[in-house]
Amino acid sequence: MQPRVSSFEDVKDSMQARPASQPRASPRLFLKIFLPLVALGIGFSVFGMYVTRLQIGTPGAIFQSCIEEPVGLERWIRPPSDLMHSMSDEELLWRASWVPQIKRFPFKRTPKVAFMFLTRGPLPLSPLWERFFKGHEGRYSIYLHTHPSYKANFTSNSVFHRRQIPSEVSEWGQMSMCDAERRLLANALLDLSNERFILLSESCIPLSNFNITYQYLIRSRHSFVGVLDDPGPYGRGRYNANMIPEVSIDQWRKGSQWFEVNRKLAISIVKDTTYYPKFKKFCRPHCYVDEHYFPTMLTIESPHLLANRSITWVDWSRGGAHPATFGKFDITEAFLKRILGGQNCSYNNQASSLCFLFGRKFAPSSLEPLLQLAPTLLGFG
Fold it and tell me: Which residue has the higher pLDDT, 105 or 33?
């Protein structure tokens, strides 16, 4: 015989048939069960708070005290503590284009020079640069754009420690090279104290000590961008008529990739949405866009701010598509004196014999003789 399954009505009837008076749980029994549970919960809470406070005060603990967000003006003027941000290029360029409209700073500002290294990977000449920067903290900042697969391993006491920025692959002669340069400028612009911006490679060396370099750049009324109106096949011959109306052939310029600009021009470069699309679309191989984009754009926009020359020495006398490279046996006292002397140029509209602050291309093997000659010939180390 199957057991009878109770229906909803059966359950309802049984509840209604239950006597009105049911025995209640004893209050004493309630207190015996409930109060110990409350006490146990409070105990765990107090213990947890104690452990948290203890671990916050212990170096290397799991729980770290929260760093308060800077308030007031400090939140706007403090440079980023971590260069490896998560912003896309679009977000970065937008953020870097912010410009204060009141030119007088309401805080003590020491203008800095941003040294922007565009490299494939390691910096073999970094020991020379370490000596160059030593003792001048607060007057410079450093940014490294490397191949995205390269992870620098500089020690914590190095000036290059944690100075890598988020990067993308850049190819010689392609728009990706200009993208890398804009990315460097945009990251450097996030520090309001950066006033001058110099683009360097892993093969560059300083040709003067830091004080001379700093004063030369900070006091200059012009930015050092090589600009040339070349009528030949490697100048105007690379022009594409589709650049009109933004760029006419009369405005087309050629120059060195290794530029130096002030803050005003750096902002002009990162905020550009007028010339960039044209160069990206119509300055294709064999146009070599990195030789034309910035010189042309800046000549159109701010010709009065350009010195029309580079401050990075290079030797093209050997011919070919690339300049000469100098190794260990090239680095002699006579060689460096030849670079440093006998130059004539204009600085702040006055004649000057100091024309180059940096030199390239120097091979890794040149490091040892450079370190030996730097104290007497370059003025540092």
Answer: 105
Distance CA 238, CA 191 (A): 37
Domain count, the chain: 1
Residue 106 CB neighbour total at 10 angstroms:
9
pTM of the model: 0.81
* 126 part of a folded domain: yes
| pLDDT at residue 161 tops 80 | yes
Per DSSP, the residues of 312-366 read EE---TT-SSS---B-GGG--HHHHHHHHSS--EEETTEEES---SEE--B-GGG
**Better-scored residue on pLDDT, 323 or 75:** 323
Edge-to-edge strand ranges of the sheet holding 112-118: 140-145, 112-118, 194-200, 260-262
CA gap 76, 85 in Å, rounded:
17
Residue 347 domain-assigned (yes or no) = no
The strands making up 358-359's β-sheet, listed across from edge to edge, are 205-206, 358-359, 312-313
Backbone angles phi, psi at 151, to 5 degrees: -115, 110
Q: 235: domain CATH number? A: 3.90.550
Q: What is the maximum span of the chain, computed from C-alpha positions, in angstroms?
A: 119
Residue-range definition of the domain harbouring residue 294: 78-310
pLDDT digits (tens, 9 = 90+) for 322-337: 899 999 999 999 999 9
The tens digit of pLDDT for each residue in 123-158 reads: 999 999 999 999 999 999 999 999 999 999 999 999
pLDDT for residue 20: 42
Which of 217, 187, 202, 185 has its CA nearest to residue 294?
185
- Residue that has been written with the tokens 């003067």 in this structure: 208
The angle formed by the CA atoms of residues 136, 137 and 140, to the nearest 5 degrees, is 85
Asked, for residue 67, whether it belongs to a domain, the answer is: no
| Neighbour tally for 76: CB within 10 Å | 11
Identity at 81, one-letter amino acid code: S
Distance CA 272, CA 255 (A): 19
Q: Is 29 part of a structural domain of the chain? A: no
